[in-house]
Amino acid sequence: MKINIVHIGFFYSGGGERVALEQARLLRERGHKVKVFAPIIRDDKCFPELLKKVEPEELITHFPSPIFREAIAMISSAILPIGIRKLADCDVLLCHSQPSMWIGYRTNKLLGIPYVGYLHQPTTFIYRRPEVAGSWAKGDFLLLDGLLGVFGKRVARNLDRICHKSANRLIFNSLWTKSLFEKMYGLSGEVCYPALEMPSKSSSENRENMIITASRHYPWKRIDLAFQVMSLLKGEKPQFIVVGDHTPHTQTLKKIVAKLGLQPYVNFTGFVTNTMLDYLYARSSAYVQTSIHEPFGLGPLEAQSHGTPAVVWGDAGVKETVLNGETGFHAKPYSIEDFSSKLSILLSDPKLWKKMSHEATIWASSFNWESHIDLLEQVLEEETK
Questions:
Q1: CATH for 2-195+368-382?
Q2: Model-level pTM greater than 0.85?
Q3: Which of 22, 42, 91, 132 has its CA 20 to 30 A from that of 30?
């Protein structure tokens, strides 16, 4: 098959970006001709090693812009027909969320090429996650949100529904995401969980009194809730490793840490390599994720692949990545007290921790790329006949 993958953009190292790049790499290994396109590609911001292997292409050439770089790229790629010509030579399009779904829809109407959606979450500019008081949002997102206000959410919602409904097939990254599209648009499809590569070895030895979270420093990731959880822990507090590129919101997070008196215990690492992240996972005693309405969440699974149990909210897609009471805990949404209690149990019971660590490794191994690509390949082949 000739497959063109279209993604929202490669401008940070997130789970969705990794999934699209790995899909391309592994489909190529199975003999398919695969190209990857995106409105914008930042070699310095998104999985540099993977980008070198996959070599994605920008849909259109952009003039350098010191501000709103990502927003301008996404808007121009969605509106201008130039990029569609690049997508013509293929049997099927695999579109990762918006504006890729809109680009797939337009390509289908103009050229008749079938398109399949791989959906990570509802379109966030239309269906927002819970509001955060006093939050910071990236300038590009504010621009897109402002334009949406000008043209109207009703129009945007109708266009969003049309390009999802017109897709030949929809694939969802979790049961939670699938349920949202069923509720919003009455649309369904297969669930194909993101996958991960298991480390060559994982060890439950040499653990430190340390917990970790790996997430973008955006308000809706609610890292601030993890600091509140930590403030309630009794006795000797663990070191808390906060992995992720610094953003303007990082300063807000640091102020919260200072207000709670947690500076001696919290380490903002900034960007770390995959090798360093693996090392931190393998040294930590627990992984915590406190984002609200997380559609999937690859971090808890990555940690579990290293035998590190995870504590997450018993809510949304993230609860599908942790087996409650077996590979970690689901805390009652959104009780800081319950989350802290679950984390405290995990950190204070060596026998339970060892059992959960063992089960976590086994559980994480079930999210493998072979199964992911098997299902993806089957769906794409069916839609080219």
A1: 3.40.50.2000
A2: yes
A3: 42
